[in-house]
Amino acid sequence: MLPPWLRLLLHWLLNAVALLAVAEIVSGITVTGYGAALLTAFVLGIINWSIKPILLLLTLPATLFTLGIFALVINALLFWAATGIVPGVVVADFWSAFWGALLYSILTGVVAIALSDPRYEVKVRWRVDRRRWHDRDDDPWV
Asked: From the CA atom positions of the chain, what is the Rg in Å?
């Protein structure tokens, strides 16, 4: 079991590796070095934590109308903006940002699943099972 600070550090490092992989796969994205990848992963984390939920809430009608496609556009625009802030990372155009953001989201999702705390899943499952047991209708004591 990893301590939380080490899990956070490992998560950050693996997100930077995911960004380097995205730069290798998507042709319009260039990352000049490891430092730029680390800084971009940090900036993307801050943007996804702070700005993205607000934008998704504000654009909820458009997202519902387009059946979720607009959320991908917002993801691409935020990815493009974050890479524009950091020197050493270049995204050529919107479509490079779109495909890069989609691939980066998939890779960081895999990282998040791999580094998730297994104790949390057990606690959630135990609480759900306990509620099911208490919700039984044939129990005379409830």
From this structure: 20
